[in-house]
Amino acid sequence: MMEPVKVGVLGLGTVGAGVVNLLARNGDEITRRAGREIRVTRAAVRSLDRARDCETGAIDIGTDARAIVEDPNIDVVLELIGGDELAYELVMAAIANGKHVVTANKHLIALHGNEIFAAADEAGVVVSFEAAVAGGIPIIKAIRESLAANRIEWVAGIINGTGNFILSQMKFEGVTFEQALAEAQKLGFAEADPTFDVDGIDAAHKLAILGSIAFGIPLSFDRIVTDGIRGIAADDIEYAEELGYRVKHLGIAQRQETGVAMRVHPTLVPERALLANVEGEKNAIMVHGDAVGPTAYYGAGAGAGATASAVVADLIDTARMMSVDPSGRVPHLAFQPDQITEEPILESPDFVCGHYFRVQVADKTGVMAEITRMLAELEIGIEAILQKDPPTAEDDARVIIVTKPAREGTLHEALDHIKALPTTRDGVVHYRVAEFED
Ligand SMILES: NC(=O)C1=CN([C@@H]2O[C@H](COP(=O)(O)OP(=O)(O)OC[C@H]3O[C@@H](n4cnc5c(N)ncnc54)[C@H](O)[C@@H]3O)[C@@H](O)[C@H]2O)C=CC1
Ligand SMILES: N[C@@H](CC=O)C(=O)O
Ligand code: NA
Description:
Alpha-Beta Plaits, 6-stranded parallel sheet, 17 strands, alpha/beta, single chain, Dihydrodipicolinate Reductase, domain 2
């Protein structure tokens, strides 16, 4: 048997402890798969006084992460501290020191991946990041390797466990947004800064990675249109359900005629669709390849065990390919580095999808006809209409419309006309609708 692979872990929090526990529990089987033992020999933590959720007796633990990335006895650096600045510095230093890297850090990869992978290619090392997208679900491997024969048309999914957990808890347990978020934090799903989860930023980090490996484009986090789950009104969830939809927070990367649409937002999904029925912290991603058609990947997107599952799989891959000529390795972003090409990334007015909107109007004869006429003038088809009494304002009515797929800029043109009607009250609520073939 070959020498053990010596791993230096940066950060022994939820995921770090999960990895140590998993290696201890399944060590023999992991060695049989990897061909050599994977051994955590060093770890850096922020505070030596904190109790750990794993057995650390055999690990040399200190507080100096830089010492690990420079240690000649370390083969693989496992970055699990999160965030982008320090993690970036440590990962770049590890690469410069000729070490392979495994990370669960989507923030780091989404913002700095282009540079990190170029440095890794140059140094002949590999940076693996399966855990960074949808935790334990093997979605990076599926897209990069198993679907490599396809031209990928779209990727759509629930890629933030905390956000999905909050929406499910609010719906099924009747708890408030704040209570559900506190529970997600307690369970270890949420990011250190949970605004990343609730404002869609974490999902956008992951979507940047998915879009890049699906389409062969550079990581483009700052081009993603991002809305979170804050402020979704219970009324809209109810109306959507009455119309046969569920509200889910989706990340969508989709080829359109004029470019690539990359967006993260609350979305109305037909109630029978697979993605509509994913609850709790579970993630689910659909990938459509031109040859294979739609495919689905479901599982735990967060949590110590599930995330460790992906991290350790990357460690096993790393152990196996350490002796492989770099030119024979799977490219970091699925396409050969010199084949990554820019494509136009669309702004929101160019998105083509269905739309849900709610507008409050004076409850007078002819108002509904006026609204539908304005949509018709702009050739926006109507899928469904609902009229409801608002909770207050007895003389008003709420009009809720779901349109057929239309250019978003055209929809906003129609909404501007509708808002300008003398019978329209302030404020229009708008959500996108997505219908993806299962
Ligand atoms: N928790 C989850 O379910 C998932 C987490 N991730 C990612 O995994 C990474 C780690 O996440 P968690 O384990 O949940 O976070 P965590 O907050 O539980 O653990 C991070 C640990 O790093 C330590 N740390 C911070 N600065 C340090 C430094 N300079 N030196 C040494 N240690 C330092 C912290 O004290 C903390 O214990 C993040 O990038 C996160 O986004 C990815 C998928 C799922
Ligand atoms: N905070 C993230 C953790 C996994 O990436 C989530 O909730 O999905
Ligand atoms: Na994954």
